Amino acid sequence: MDNLLLFAVAIWAGAQNALAGGGSFLLLPTLMFTGMDARAANITCCAALFPAQLATGWTSRKFADGVGAAPLWVFYAVSVCGGAVGAVILLVTSRESFARLVPWLVLFATALFAWGSFLRRPGETHGHIGPFGAVFSQFLIAVYGGYFGGGAGFLMVAALTMAGQNVRVASATKNILAGVMNTAAVAIFLFSPDLYWKQAGITALGAIVGGVSGARVLHHVDEKILRIVVVAIGAALTIGLFYKAP
C-alpha cells in the first residue's frame, strides 16, 4: 500500500515539477510517512528525482549559457564541487540535528518559492553581480542544493538574472546546472545506507511518468493555481514539521 501511495504521489510530483516546480514538497513527507527519518527521506528524494532532472537539463542545453568572461563549463565545475560539498555535509550531519533543521529548511524553501512565484517580477534583479559573483553564488547555491535542494532553482535564476542573463536563458541554464549539481550529490549518496533503493526506484518511475505527462499539458494548465498549491503544501508541511520537531 505504501508503494502504491508513493508511486501515485511521485506521478503528481513529477507533473508538478514539469509545470511549476515544488515536487519535493510532496515527496519528502510521503517518504517520511513510509517510515524513513528526515535525512534518509531527503537523500532518497534527491536520488529519485535525479533522472528527471537530467532529462530536463538535456532538453534545455541549447539555451544554457555562461556569464560574460565565465563560460558555462566553469558553472559546471563549481556546481559539481558545491553539490559534493553539500552532500558530504548532509552525510556527516546527525539524524537528530537534520530532523531539527528540516522545518527551517522547508520554511526557507517555501518562502523562496512564494517569492519567486508571486512577488518577483520577470527580469527583476535588484542589483547586479559580475561573472565572479555569479560563479561564487552558484557554488554556494550548489552546496545548499547538495544538502537540501528545495528552492535552489529560484536561487539560481535570481543569481543568473542579476548577472545579466535574460529569464529564458537563466531558466535553461538553471535546468542544466541542477542536473550537474545533483550528479555529484547522487554519486555520493549511492554509497549511503540511507538511500532506500526500492522506494527511490518507485519514486523515479512515477516522477518520470508525471514529468512526461506534465510537459505535454504544460500549456493547458493554470500555472498560478499550481504554484498556489505548492505554497499551501509547503506551509502545511512547515507547520506539521515544527509541531513534530524534536
Q: How are the secondary structure elements laid out?
A:
Elements: H1 2-19, H2 24-33, H3 38-60, H4 72-92, H5 95-119, H6 131-147, H7 152-162, H8 167-189, H9 197-216, H10 223-244
What distinguishing features does this structure have?
10 helices, 246 residues, mainly alpha, globular, 77% helix
The residue-averaged pLDDT reads 83
- Structural class from helices and strands? mainly alpha
Task: Give Rg in angstroms.
Answer: 17 Å
Low-confidence stretches: none
Helices, by number, come to 10
| Spatial shape | globular
> Describe the biggest sheet?
none
Estimate what percentage of residues fall within beta strands: under 5%
Separation, N- and C-terminal Cα atoms: 28 Å
| Total discrete domains | 1
Number of E-state strands? 0
Q: What oligomeric arrangement do these chains adopt? A: single chain
Order of helices and strands: HHHHHHHHHH
What proportion of the residues is helical, as a percent range? over 70%
